[in-house]
């Protein structure tokens, strides 16, 4: 599929872009933000009743924009606006409506609600595109309580594997059971999978989650590639003992060993960074047992998350870390075991889609900057199905995954206009 700007088509694009309603979009963001745990704004975890309630509201908004709405067997919420050619592969946008704990009010939902606003603008302008237009609220883009992220988009790409479905949360419920509990059918995921070529293109609007665009006063980012992400669970097994009666030289303290691993992880990631090599490593989840003041920690489970744009680093970082620390950990009397939770490769955006976004930004009167994404997105898995691109907008001080996350309405509309213009060129040819 080629992407070109045709004069006759540009008038239709302009009509739809002008029909976008900033106040309507902003009000929807305000309304969806209200679905949060009151004591922990903004927290709306996938698989919770609160997330389910927000999706009832989302379905109503899709319907108000003229879309047909359904939830697929993987738990994705999908709004569709039929095109004139039902046989033409659809053009798809979307993101996610779940959040991390104490997260932000724009991460994810901007991409879903901007898609709904485009559908509403099409309806207001009386324009029916050639291709069907879909907006998807993907299930659980953020790491779920089962340890798996991008659940819905993995399913669409056909890579939600059996071992992932068997992963459990703290209550022992499996991911498969969680999907069933919210109305999905994990045993029918073959119906969800979309084959390459079944989608004409996928575009996602998102806040940058970094400081580059704001620092350079550039309103639109054109994403070049997304880093690969690998998550590994590391279990350190020591021996629980009485904290008052066990001499220091006779302890097998699992938390001391874990602390050494965490520090070594930090130092190894710093050492690997180069001007042309991006590496970040984080141990952001730690479970200590028995986790009481008067007992020597006997067991620690932690999750190492590695992000890099180098496949060789993704393939070797955890193994090299453990190998380098093996002797020191043996001296502490602990043993280690590992389990890979997930792995996503480095993903490159489609060059033609990137150029389309640049051209759309210029037509809308905005400067743009090409930059990579250090965050994971559902776009990673949609790239397995269709040509993929992402539009970034700045966020205040580059902050994200925190309550201070913010963008202004003008910044939001710049991204929405560029997304809409790009989508329209795809929808009309």
From TrEMBL:
Domain (Peptidase M20 dimerisation) ranges: 228-317
| UniProt KW keywords | Hydrolase, Manganese, Metal-binding
- Does this UniProt record's set of keywords contain Hydrolase? yes
Required cofactor names: Mn(2+)
One MF term in the entry's GO annotations: hydrolase activity
Membrane-traversing stretches: none
The family database entries (InterPro entries) matched by this protein are listed as: Amidase_Cbmase (IPR010158), Bact_exopeptidase_dim_dom (IPR036264), Peptidase_M20 (IPR002933), Peptidase_M20_dimer (IPR011650)
Please name the CDD domains in this protein's record.
M20_bAS
Q: Which Gene3D superfamilies match?
A: 3.30.70.360, Zn peptidases
PANTHER family referenced in this protein's UniProt entry, alphabetically = ALLANTOATE DEIMINASE-RELATED
Family under the similarity heading: Belongs to the peptidase M20 family.
Q: How does it assemble?
A: Homodimer.
Which named protein is this?
Zn-dependent hydrolase
Q: Which organism is it from?
A: Alcaligenes endophyticus
């Amino acid at each position: 599929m080629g992407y070109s700007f045709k004069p006759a088509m540009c008038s239709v694009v302009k009509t739809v872009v002008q029909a976008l309603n900033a106040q309507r979009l902003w009000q929807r963001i305000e309304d969806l933000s209200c679905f949060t745990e009151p004591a922990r704004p903004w927290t709306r975890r996938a698989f919770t009743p609160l997330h389910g309630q927000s999706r009832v509201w989302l379905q109503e908004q899709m319907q108000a924009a003229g879309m047909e709405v359904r939830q697929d067997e993987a738990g994705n919420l999908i709004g569709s606006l039929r095109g004139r050619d039902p046989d033409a592969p659809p053009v798809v946008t979307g993101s996610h409506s779940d959040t991390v704990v104490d997260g932000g009010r724009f991460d994810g939902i901007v991409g879903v609600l901007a898609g709904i606003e485009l559908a509403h603008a099409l309806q207001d302008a009386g324009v029916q595109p050639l291709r069907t237009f879909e907006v998807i609220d993907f299930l659980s883009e953020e790491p779920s309580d089962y340890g798996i992220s991008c659940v819905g988009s993995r399913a669409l790409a056909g890579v939600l594997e059996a071992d992932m479905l068997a992963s459990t949360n703290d209550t022992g419920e499996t991911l498969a059971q969680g999907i069933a509990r919210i109305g999905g059918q994990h045993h029918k995921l073959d119906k969800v999978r979309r084959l390459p070529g079944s989608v004409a293109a996928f575009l996602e609007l998102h806040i940058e989650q970094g400081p580059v665009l704001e620092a350079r006063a550039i309103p639109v980012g054109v994403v070049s590639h997304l880093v690969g992400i690998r998550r590994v669970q590391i279990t350190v097994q020591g021996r629980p003992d009485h904290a008052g009666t066990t001499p220091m030289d006779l302890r097998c303290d699992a938390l001391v060993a874990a602390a050494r691993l965490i520090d070594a992880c930090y130092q190894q990631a710093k050492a690997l960074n180069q001007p042309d090599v991006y590496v970040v490593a984080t141990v952001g989840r730690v479970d200590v047992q028995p986790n009481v003041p008067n007992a020597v920690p006997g067991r620690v489970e932690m999750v190492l998350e590695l992000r890099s744009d180098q496949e060789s680093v993704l393939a070797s970082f955890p193994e090299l870390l453990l190998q380098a620390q093996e002797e020191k950990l043996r001296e502490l009397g602990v043993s280690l075991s590992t389990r890979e939770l997930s792995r996503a490769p480095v993903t490159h955006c489609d060059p033609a889609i990137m150029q389309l976004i640049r051209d759309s930004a210029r037509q809308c009167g905005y400067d743009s900057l090409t930059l990579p994404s250090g965050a994971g997105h559902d776009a990673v898995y949609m790239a397995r199905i269709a040509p993929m691109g992402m539009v970034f907008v700045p966020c205040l001080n580059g902050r994200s995954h925190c309550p201070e996350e913010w963008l202004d309405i003008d910044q939001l509309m710049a991204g929405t206009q560029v997304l809409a213009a790009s989508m329209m060129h795809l929808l009309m040819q």
